[in-house]
Structure prediction request, 1072 residues.
Amino acid sequence: MTDIAIVAYAARQQAEVEENELEMIAPLIEQVRSETGLGPDDIDFTCSGSSDFLAGAAFSFVLTLDATRPVPPIVESHVEMDGAWALYEAWVKLQIGEAKTALVYGYGKSSPGSLRDVLATQLDPYTVAPLWPDAFGIAGLQARLMLDAGDVTERDLAEVAARSLADAADNPNAVRAGAHSIDELLAEPYLHDPLRAHDCPARADGGAAVILAADDVARRVCERPAWIRAIDHRMDVHHFGVRDPRRARSAELAAQAVGVTSDKVDVAELDAPFSHQEPLLVRALGLDAANTRINPSGGSLTGHVMMAAGLVRLGEAATRVHRGDADRAVAHATSGPWLQQNLVAVLEGD
Amino acid sequence: MTAPLDPVAPPITLPPSLRDVEPVQRVRTPFRLDYEVSAGRSMAAYLRAMKEKRILGERCPVTGQVFVPPRGVTPTSGLVTTELVELPDRGYVESFCVTRVPIPGRDDLQLPYVSAWIVLDGASVGFLGLVADIPPEEVRLGLRVQAVWRPDDELGETADNIKYWAPTGEPDVEITSYEYVGQPGEAP
Amino acid sequence: MAKQRCAVIGVGQTKYQSTRGDVSMAGLVREAALRALADAGLEWSDIDAVVIGKAPDFFEGVMTPEIILAEALGAAGKPVLRVHTAGSVGGSTAIVASSLIESGVHRRVLALGFEKQSESNAMWALSLPQAFQTSINAGAGGYFSPIIRRYMAMSGAPELVGCVVAFKDRQHALKNPYAHLHQPELTFEEVVESPMLWDPIRYSETCPSSDGACAIVLADERAAADALNPVAWVDATAMRSEANNFGGRNMVNPAASSLCAQDLYAKAGITNPREEIDVAEIYVPFSWYEPMWLESLGFAERGQGWRLVEDGVTRLGGDLPVNPSGGVLSSNPIGASGMVRFAEAALQVRGMAGEHQVVGARRALGHAYGGGAQYFAMWIVSAGD
Amino acid sequence: MADDTVLRGHVTLEYPFTRSTGPVVGAFLTGLREGVIVGIRRADGSVLVPPCEYDPETAEPLTEIVEVADTGVVTSWCWNGAPRERQPFTSPYAWALITLDGAATPMLHAVRVDSPAAMQTGMRVRAKWRAEREGHISDIECFVPEDAS
Prediction:
């Protein structure tokens, strides 16, 4: 395997961004380029992730291509997925050995449409989506199953929220933050019983950009590259009756494939849009919560950009390796209802 | 190997209650999503100028190319635009299509109609518009045209303010290269 | 790890038609995937990963439909990627799948492209209402007509060259059981007389709107050795993208296209494509794009591509058959159309193209493009040694 | 730029999609029109509702459609206190996973009760059928507690 690292990361999350998607993503690309000194001509491969259903337009990614300066033409691809999977595609390209550097970006604006309704169109279109179940209702069913089974208590969920909100205070990209006692949170009314508002993701507009580099290039442009030691992703079945919502089997498989538990994990950035999904993922990935700092950024609970949240987790984990805060970090991305599809990566410093 | 069109799905068996009834084969699933789209900074300025019958483009900070309509970032730089420039409402037809099929939501367009890429004087790229006041068969590459605006009381923050483009009567622009976008004589 | 060799060991297609009313989306993709597995002699459990490509999700009104197709594609517990690069997506999807093999990450990958356009309709999905202005371009024809007009003016090509291409591809389609348009009675005169929709594009010079899916099984060298049928080696792949509109852009022969082809040939060791390539499956949704792409792809000099069409070079039996399957002009399930080109190129060098087989084809080009002729994906496949 | 405030435009994307169902999903919808609920049998004998065309684990095709009851047990629920446009009701109700008698796995639908206090995991419910049915998931108006009038 070729050694490939995340060498730069930039992101923006905001409740509502007034710029269009192109204006929103271009400065982030510019930022990772200037951090690494890699200009448009120095990038061998570009890959992005976004969704037409968020933009409300077909072929919406064609409009944001201009942010890459695609004149002259570039080697480029796009996934209709979270940018984390664009990073995976770029990682594969770099593994072949013909490309040394890659620009990856993901973005989405949830504010123009109603994301909760948009996500209903991701469900079985014949027997489920026609009822237009919203994303919070679907997540609430999963939370209740976990509560009923004793996997978690409502206090556990409030603890996740309180810690995330407190950590988010140090994250300029968080859209929700602050110090709250657990009892204070538990006193809040239900939004969608059993979920309270702080159990649900703080939707945001925004995006993230990352530069990947191989071997010597990574060492040249970054003081402490975050080496991608392993990366894997898996899909679960969709049918609501078949999946055990208390588990994320695809996350378990991906975590095993990358060897999460083979060594101590200093930091884990998990894409858990709902509070109950954090303990579920901690268990699925086999993390030792007592010795791993979970979501020091505040996580998706305090700022969630659809189609970029996973790439943000990769970037946040890499940043902690860059800064020397962590030697070994785990990053996770997810897609689909009840954590149907999951990606897990292990990042390490030298 | 199986023959090309052999069925691949095995037949299903039904319980007695469904054996003698007409099977459902289609299901209606009406779809509707609503969006409030933000124009972005450059486009907002462009649309507001449109209301005053002015056309704004943006200048690429690297190449100096002028793009219209402005989208906030020029593809020749990848950078967010800082300079907007006002362009005249005149130009030439770079190429065009005579459309004879109706399009959804445009029942007002009489067939056939001519849609054209119009390069405004001073712009580096074509700008999409309708050409009228001339029989479709007389529209040609290089034709000089000028904007015909909607009446003042119908103007809004929309590109639809330009009703169509009409011939100016000036001599045609001599096209030196049919392949390249932009002002004649500036092809690479 | 050095770059691994990659081979096509299985191809599967559905019958393309305007409405596949007999199947769900799952049933549609399943049909292509099962046929590809059968061709490869594999079971679901042999597949390491699935790469799905399709064009806008609005066609089916399902966001990221790969989420609901996991069961149908045996993808439970496996990696699934979803590619969307506009019209070129079928080609890009095959290339992403091949990179999973070339990188050594996986040994057997299922690539699949599909579109079930009949769930809505193409004109709606390709001309969605936009904010701040009403649309004046009617679908893809409205976009590409002005470009074709420039090519006609630049090349001085005779007016009926587009009709020659359209008639040729419909004749080819008669030899392809999967093709959507089977029009045995069609005459050249009928092609010429068919109504102008997007002048200078006639109705007969445009592609249909199809339901359909296409699947390819890709394998590494070791897995290819166990393949049931002859394999096609992937000699080279290339992708390029460029901006939609900028001063000096060559609309007729975009730099992204010609540079993509140059890169492809360099990787495949091809110095004279006209001599070294036996058959080409080129993405031609509007007839005039055949001569245009022939020039861009280095098969003809600038402004001369139409001569190959006129001289019958691109007919089955000609010196460089183009789209013996009938091409996009005869079947167009958008998300799969590019992959069909790639798959048909592979079938040719495997000697498995049936009635539309180009005799002795050893090396073939698969090509796809999308957006405003901005996105390009190409591969060269060849027969084994 | 003189005026720097946000400028927004409205877009409505709307289409009356009509989907072809294939035989398996079609059988489920045919059943709804006829006032019965059907599932599909897996190799181990268990019944999936709604029926799935392919086995979720083995990817093998499933073919045996079987009838299940229109009564069952709530295995999970979430209160929808502020229903959104197009959802089954305009007044509050619960989303629920319901395992029907004879089925091994739950399906999603709405349960109509007055308040979350009336909802409980493990409660028994029955389908409330519409009088006019067409072969659509909303042919079941909702589920209600089994003993409700």
